[in-house]
Write the structure tokens for this entry.
Amino acid sequence: MVQYSPVDRTFAALSDPTRRGILERLGRGNATISELAEPYGISLTGLKKHVRVLEDAELVATEKVGRTRMCRLGPRRLDEIEEWITMYRRMLDERLDRFGELLERRKGVPQ
Amino acid sequence: MTSDPQQAATATVSTPSDREIRTERYFDAPRDLVFQAFTDPELTPEWWGPRGTTTVVDTMEVEPGGSWRFVITDEDGGENAFRGIYREVSPPERIVQTFEWEGMPGHVAVETITFEDLGDRTKITNVSLFHTSEERDGMLSSMESGMNETYARLDELLARLRSR
């Protein structure tokens, strides 16, 4: 049986564009399931599946309010992981290019 | 020396899985020289940080279990420190090291850097895998036997070099 760590679940949850869209929408304010489904043109059942994946990863929390289910951002600090990876990619992007330039500069320099 | 400048100037970046970033790049120099430059603390400030930043090497012990710590200063004077451990150093073909940003401890990338000998040229492949520190620690213990084997191989390699 495969055991998923919280970070695995977070990355799996974020791998889908619809789920990233849901998080972006909830970042602007709480919304009901049907409000979330509207821009994607998918069924409420389909959207609920996405919300459940996000809930398992603690990226989204839901609460039944009367006859609707209200969704909001969950306790997991998504922004932290995203910030980390953004920082890391930025660090990585130019590194090998700059290393290549260094090698070019050092051509002809006695070793 | 002939080379394809197009290929030499471009790093290929791909994301084989959600947690992995793979970068490949060709260098117009033989592998021994590339490895030597890559692991030289005096040369590291010239290329390690993003453009426009200044890198200071605080610690750089390029040996299995050795530490590294670099401090980067950006144009606005903001300082960021990065650190890690060299898990495997197999000159001139492979380095495995961890990467942590001190500003956000607990998130770790494990970088596997492979140097491929292409005669006058060298291909570097950097695969970065993300972990939390808990996962990294768990992995470290399961990797212990593998690491010992690596140390043994490194010892053999160094012995061969000494006897030359």
Observations:
- Residues 16-162 of chain B form a domain with the Alpha-D-Glucose-1,6-Bisphosphate; Chain A, domain 4 fold (CATH 3.30.530.20).
- Chain B touches chain A through 38 residues (CB under 8 Å).
- Helices of chain B lie at 5-9, 31-38, 133-142, 144-162.
- Residues 82 and 101 of chain B are 5 Å apart (CA to CA).
